[in-house]
Amino acid sequence: MPVGLQAEPSLGVPGKKRWAMVVDLRRCIGCMACVCADKAEYDVPLGVWRTIVKVKDTGHYPNTKRHFMPRLCNHCDNPPCVRNCPTEATYKHEDGFVLQRYERCIACRTCVAACPYNARHVLPRNRDRVKIGGVVDKCTFCNHRVEKGLQPACVQTCLGRSRIFGDLNDPNSEVSRLVARHKTVVLKPDKGTRPQVYYIKPDRAQTEQVFSAPHSYAARSDAEAFYRHNRGSKFFSGVL
Amino acid sequence: MFEYMEYNIAPWGAEIVIYFFLIGVAAMTFVYAAAPAVFGNVFGGVAKSMEPFQKVGLIASFVLLLICGPLLIMDLGQPSRFLYPILYFHWTSPLSWGSLFLPLFGLCIIGFYFGLVKGNQGLMRVTGILGSLLALSMPLYTGLDLMVNQTRELWSNPTIPLLFVILSMSSGTAVVAVIQLVRGQLNAQAVEFLHAFLYLALAVTFALFLAEWVVLNYGTGEKQQAWEIINQQFGFKYWGMTFLIGILAPLVLVAMPKLGRDPRILTLAAVLSAVGAYSFREVLIYAGQLTQINF
């Protein structure tokens, strides 16, 4: 078992569940319904996201293309966030979820630094409706819905059925069939995290870290505005 | 359009950089103050030159620790839970070990001080040895805290903990030199002692700086990206503050046999090296967080 985990990885273990997600990029239309569903499900504050759809423009007019890439916590089987958490606030569930105990989290942001997928964020304090604040939060694969036999909110709302969720240990599940039939990739496999979000047919511009800086004028403007807006605020401390 | 959604980060900022620097200074100041009790007559009793520094050094170390603790706690999103890393100890997290060692280090400073005041050599020796080991663990754990992030390649480097220990040697030497110079107690033996440590620390820092340069240029895509970020966004801090002012200039000063042993020049070199020690940490901590924001 990888060090620091609370439960053995369940992938391929008979009698156990291993929840996973397949994202079919041929079907994603960039409608952002998944992002909105997630915001609604958890009252995710402005400025932070549990899931995003990354947009990438490539090429030059008239030969251009816009790529969409949904991103979320990869619920890794060797999660560095779990190993590095000093209070075990982040832990590995036996069904594969990587979850967060808000009552234990001290928001030291070690897990944020450890995650290679930018999947974690700090919740602001003094929120209006949900009282959980000042702690680190992340995608949970909607484990509260899954345990009741429902699909995660982002999967339920996905218009093009780009996001498919299920038990990888069940050979008859849709995710198992998709992973078996299609060429799938995971993000940053070289980091040894054993991520459990599988992508069908991503473009190289979306998976390469080094060469994926914002290309389009609009994207650069957005990024620069975001930098300017956050410079000097507490958690950015002028880093950007 | 929508690309700004990628920047879902909450990095370690100035509080952490200052903490990493000050805890290293506090640690090495204690090591110098405890050196006469720990080393005694070893190396010809040269450590005994620190005897006039012991009491003021312990106070300085403790004051720095009193700054470091609250600084670290205030940086947390939940400051009231600052004891949780000890209560819910997670052995794979360096931060847990650091949280445990930090108060123990404080206790050793207090124990050593009482031993010094009461003239209890046994207590001084025990707390001096334990405290020095815990002191070394302070910069070591801060470096490990970065090193264990295998997904951030600028940090995931076994030289980082060693580098942080070495940098804290430089900055600790600066505190000792300044205090002793101001008090007029920087005698020839003390100068010789500090000179040896500073020379060693600067030479190793220089070697590690070059090693970092090679590793980043000959490394993976992410390492090369880190090198670009360092040069584009932190060029002055890295080459100016760290290399020229913080490493090269003091190294040249201490390398000159006569000039390097002049108390004022030695103190100047030590202060410059402390500037470099802060700047080097700052660049590494900040740049290490920026390599993934475009991914």
Explain the overall architecture:
Chain A is α+β, with helices and mostly antiparallel strands and 240 residues long. Chain A has 8 helices and 10 strands. Chain A has one domain (19-230): Alpha-Beta Plaits, CATH 3.30.70. Helix content of chain A is 23%, strand content 20%. In chain A, strands 8-1-10-9 form a 4-stranded mixed beta sheet, with helices on one face. In chain A, strands 2-3 form a two-stranded antiparallel sheet. In chain A, a hairpin with a 5-residue loop joins β4 and β5. Chain A starts with 18 loop residues before the first strand and ends in a 10-residue tail after the last helix. Chain B is mainly alpha-helical. Chain B has helices spanning 14-39, 42-45, 54-75, 84-87, 94-118, 121-147, 159-182, 188-217, 221-233, 235-255, 263-290. In chain B, α1 runs antiparallel to α6, α7 (159-182) runs antiparallel to α11 (263-290) and α10 (235-255) runs antiparallel to α11 (263-290). Chain B is globular. Classes of the chains: A alpha+beta (240), B mainly alpha (295). Chains A and B meet through β2, α2, α3, β6 and α8 of A and α4, α5, α9 and α11 of B.
Which assembly state applies to the chains in this document?
heterodimer
Radius of gyration of chain B: 20 Å
Number of helices of chain A: 8
Straight-line distance between termini of chain A:
37 Å
Based on the model shown, name its key terms.
A: about 240 residues, Alpha-Beta Plaits, four-stranded mixed sheet, globular, B: about 300 residues, Formate dehydrogenase/DMSO reductase fold, about 75% helix
